[in-house]
Here is the input.
Amino acid sequence: FELIEAHWLFQNRFDGTPEFDALIETRSIIHALIDFADGSTTAHMAHTDMKLPIAFALGLDPREAVLEPVDLVEIGRLEFRKITAERYGIWEIKDEILRHPSKGAIINAANEAAIGRFLEGSCGFLDISRLIIAAHERFGHTPPESLEAIFSMDEEVRAYVRSYR
Here is the structure.
């Protein structure tokens, strides 16, 4: 979901097509890294709290303090891990989703339905990725063309995931 979000936020802000990728930062302090043509990288760091994205969504003045600043000395060190499809099955469709980000609606509907199944105890945690990939394979061939098509497809995907065995 973070990569889909990055695509929609930044797709038209660059000359050419930006490349998006992800990795795991185990403390959840770094929320974005931007690699520049000169070889340098800038990090967006903040405490894990939805107040900041909500503040931006509401159009609040970003000069106002929303969160306490990150104290790098207190954090000590950061650890990064590569994301692999072997460990995170959903990763196998990453490139396809980035090529066709409108399919994010399918992924979202499938994810919400799969999490619902997990919470009710009708599937295991690791089944969530399997259910999302199955929905993507079933519905991902024709991206929705209109808002009405998105709502219709959303209902179909959720029903499919709820009944998938």
